[in-house]
Amino acid sequence: MSEDVWVFGYGSLVWRPDFKFAERRPATIEGWVRRFWQGSTDHRGVPGAPGRVVTLEADEKGICWGMAYRIAAADVEPIMVELDYREKGGYSVKNVEMIFPTDDHPNVTGLAYIGTPDNPNYLGPETEERIAAQVVASTGPSGPNDEYVLRLAEALRELGADDPHVFELERQVRKLI
Question: How far is CA 91 from the centre of its chain?
Fold first, then answer.
């Protein structure tokens, strides 16, 4: 690939990128909200007992905070192979416009992995109480599902982001653990 590529992380990529990047910046995308509606049978759960991880849901008034990573052109191909493997559990790639609210860097178009309702691991909407119960009961090869929720909430606070869904789920998970 002859150009740098930007990737928007809004879940574990916010706090655990695990790939080489040339630049990292807090960013937002508009028209989307983060929801724990995607099942995980390969990282935070197992087949038959999926954990819950985030995906993006379209919402015309939504704003989702996350981390934007610039991948240098020379590294794009191998890193995209790694990310495609990491996000293989029902995610597909979509172009999104990233806004950098903390500086005057121009907006950029980049890639985001989104678990759409037509993928086999999509679990869909549920109350935070029920999602929390599933999260607390789930563990997979990447560790306990509750760690994912708690680390994401902590990382969003560090960004100064407001995400009522994540913070309410964090509250419900803490009540159960």
Answer: 10
